[in-house]
Structure prediction request, 85 residues.
Amino acid sequence: MGFLWSLIIGGIIGWLAGLVMGRDIPGGVIGNIIAGFIGAWLGSLILGNWGPVIGDFYFIPALIGAVVLIFIVSLLLRSFGRSRS
Prediction:
């Protein structure tokens, strides 16, 4: 049950990060979950472990990490789109 809860919270974190950035995450629900998990990892590397813990994620660093991840991915996708034209 803990793994399922982590998937749900990871998806919510990815979805919230997409709302903050105003960009859709490629891959839909799976992309949101992946962005939430990678964002949580990235956020804890950059900011450490602090803030409220929800579903084994430190929520604030995870959200900030997911926003940074979506920003980087959107820049990469935009640059690859221009290079093919």
About this structure: Helices lie at 2-21, 28-47, 59-84. The CA atoms of residues 10 and 61 lie 12 Å apart. DSSP finds three helices and two strands in the chain. The two ends are 47 Å apart (CA to CA).
